[in-house]
Amino acid sequence: MIILLMGPAGSGKTTVGKLLAFALSWEFADGDDFHSPANREKMSRGIGLSDEDRIPWLDAIRDAMQKWQAQGRNVVLACSALKRNYRELLGIHSNAQNVKLVYLKGTYDLLLERLRSRKGHYATEQLLASQLADLEEPTDAITIDVAKSPEEIVSEIRRRLRLA
Question: In tens digits, what is the pLDDT along the chain, a chain of 164 residues?
Fold first, then answer.
């Protein structure tokens, strides 16, 4: 099974993902690791990625997801997956049995506060604004308010996915 944690920068995808993977004894993968150096450079300058920039990145993530599923691996994946068509490219839809979508939702102010506290990460205020402009909230996901602690979020995800 794959649990895909989606949301904009600052929503806690990596923090929650690592904690959840540890709690379940699953693997963790960060979608950011699939970005090209050119994409990382753009984002570090506060430039949002275009759909054209994101397609090779999404293809690489989809290929990894298919490989994990074929191998029967359990993985928690952190990936922004901001738009509906991005999620469709990844093979995520309401009746996908082996992929569970969890939307980590936060207010602009909370996400910005978290980004400002980060050191050495490429996400900027401009990138957050760009991501929120692109965001198409899913209707077929488990939605979690990220104002809670990471541990509370992990507990809620486990409870709602019946993985307690």
Answer: 999 999 998 899 999 999 999 999 999 999 999 999 999 888 777 777 788 998 999 999 999 999 999 999 999 999 999 999 999 999 886 566 789 999 999 999 999 888 887 665 555 677 788 888 989 999 989 999 999 999 999 999 999 999 97
Superfamily of domain 2-160 in the CATH hierarchy: P-loop containing nucleotide triphosphate hydrolases (3.40.50.300)
The model carries a pTM of: 0.89
3-state secondary structure the chain: CEEEEECCCCCCHHHHHHHHHHHHCCEEEEHHHHCCHHHHHHHHCCCCCCHHHHHHHHHHHHHHHHHHHHCCCCEEEECCCCCHHHHHHCCCCCCCCCEEEEEEECCHHHHHHHHHHCCCCCCCHHHHHHHHHHCCCCCCCEEEECCCCHHHHHHHHHHHCCCC
